[in-house]
């Protein structure tokens, strides 16, 4: 190894893409509140994209994601003193959940603090809080650029052109227009409806503040669903 090439460290290290061995598949259910759950085995209708994870879930597509352990490992490499804390506590002194059962956290790495939001991903009981914490850490780490390439590409585009990484404002406006038109075609009736749908499926993000990457991920989800509707 050469000492002349400076290896990324600190916050820069968080942006280094994860190796394939640390990338897993996360089922993302197609319809919110879908209670029809079953084993995602080969040929099963619980997979909407032909990937069969073997888990038990409602009809879903599968997104690439980096798990809690790999994120923690990377955070430790970047800053052994990294910490997180809940944004709010309940009267019982435990971390407070929002009205949707999600957990807001502050993640601090190398002295920089950013917010993250996690939900239970359908888990219940004692596993639910562990899932919320892991999900919130992944979400907050993404705000530092960790595994951003997965958000950027997803595996939703397969074969389509990727959006440019940092489009100028005109491109952002165009992206918003595409989101709006695609959402209208899928039955979204108003700006409020769209904002709510966006928040519910994008980990509580606010549509008005969405980055190009977040809009592109949401648009890809809408387009994927539209293509599935056409196919059926
Ligand atoms: Zn599955």
Describe the overall structure.
The chain is of the alpha+beta class. The radius of gyration is 18 Å and the shape is globular. The strands form 3 sheets. A 3-stranded antiparallel β-sheet has the order 5-6-7. It has a two-stranded antiparallel ribbon with strand order 1-4. Strands 2-3 form a two-stranded antiparallel sheet. The longest helix has 20 residues, at 212-231. Residues 153-168 have low confidence and may be disordered. The protein has 2 domains: 11-149, 2-Layer Sandwich (Enolase-like, domain 1); 156-231, no CATH class. It is 38% helix and 16% strand. The chain binds zinc ion. Zinc ion (ZN) binds next to strand 4.
Structural class: alpha+beta
**Largest β sheet strand count, sense and barrel closure:** 3 strands, antiparallel
* Total number of helices: 7
List bound small molecules: zinc ion
CATH domain fold name of the largest domain: Enolase-like, domain 1
Helix-strand sequence: HEEEEHEEEHHHHH
**Poorly predicted tracts of residues:** 153-168
Radius of gyration: 18 Å
- Head-to-tail CA distance between termini: 53 Å
CATH architecture of the largest domain: 2-Layer Sandwich
Gross morphology:
globular
Strands side by side in the biggest sheet: 5-6-7
Number of strands: 7
Mean residue pLDDT? 84
Helix-residue proportion? 25-40%
The domain count comes to 2
């Amino acid at each position: 190894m050469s000492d002349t090439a400076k290896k990324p460290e600190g916050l820069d290290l968080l942006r280094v893409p994860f190796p394939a061995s640390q990338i897993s598949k996360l089922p993302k259910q197609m319809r919110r509140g879908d209670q029809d759950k079953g084993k995602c085995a080969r040929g099963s209708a619980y997979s909407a994209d032909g990937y069969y994870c073997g888990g038990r879930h409602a009809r879903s597509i599968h997104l690439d994601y980096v798990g809690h352990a790999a994120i923690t490992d990377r955070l430790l490499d970047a800053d052994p003193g990294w910490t997180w804390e809940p944004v709010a506590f309940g009267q019982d002194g435990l971390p407070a959940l929002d009205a949707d059962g999600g957990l807001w956290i502050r993640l601090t790495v190398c002295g920089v603090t950013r917010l993250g939001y996690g939900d239970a991903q359908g888990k219940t009981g004692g596993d639910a809080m562990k899932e919320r914490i892991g999900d919130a850490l992944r979400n907050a780490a993404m705000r530092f650029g960790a595994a951003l390439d997965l958000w950027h590409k997803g595996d939703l585009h397969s074969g389509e052109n990727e959006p440019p990484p940092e489009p100028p404002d005109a491109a952002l406006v165009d992206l918003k227009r595409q989101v709006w038109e695609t959402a209208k075609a899928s039955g979204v009736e108003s700006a409020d409806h769209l904002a709510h749908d966006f928040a519910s499926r994008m980990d509580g993000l606010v549509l008005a503040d969405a980055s190009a990457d977040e809009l592109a991920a949401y648009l890809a989800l809408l387009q994927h669903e539209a293509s599935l509707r056409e196919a059926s």
